[in-house]
Amino acid sequence: MSLLIRQLRLELKTLCGRLVTSWHFRPISMSLPLSDLSEFFPNENNEEQAKTGRSWRASEMRSKSNEDLHKLWYVLLKERNMLLTLKHEARRQGELTPSPERMRKVRKSMARIKVVLGERDRAVRDIRKTERRTDLQ
């Protein structure tokens, strides 16, 4: 079982006060539930193109907890799905994709989350190997 799953299980255990035996639980939603596809399109109220920030740096992500990275992953996933919907709609209408640099920023940030989690996983494996070696000696 990966370290992330163990940490999530431990956090859930402490939050719920009991052992979570099943992984069939309701996913965390950070947005208001909508009954239609309007969540995948930008706000109609804001006619101007929204200014976007830069992608997240790996150094910034290293200071975040696994829970924060998990939340950030789903925010980025939602943003990526919205951008893909916009891209598909623009192609359908024969227009250019609006702000393609946003997709690059989202992809970079998602890739950096994977890098940071991989670093953490390797660090834990190295610690365990070291502990096993010292136990055997």
Structural descriptors:
137 residues, mainly alpha, 4 helices
The radius of gyration over CA amounts to: 20 Å
* Element order: H for helix, E for strand: HHHH
Counting H and I runs of at least 4 residues, what is the number of helices?
Answer: 4
Query: What structural category characterises the helix and strand content?
Result: mainly alpha
Question: Which percent band covers the strand fraction?
Answer: under 5%
Task: Give the terminus-to-terminus CA distance.
Answer: 27 Å
Average pLDDT figure: 76
Reported for the largest beta sheet, the result is:
none
By DSSP, the count of extended strands is 0
The parts where pLDDT drops under 50 for at least 5 residues are 16-29
- Percentage of helical residues? 55-70%
Write the layout of secondary structure elements.
Blueprint: H1 3-16, H2 58-62, H3 66-92, H4 100-136
Helix pairs in contact: 3-4
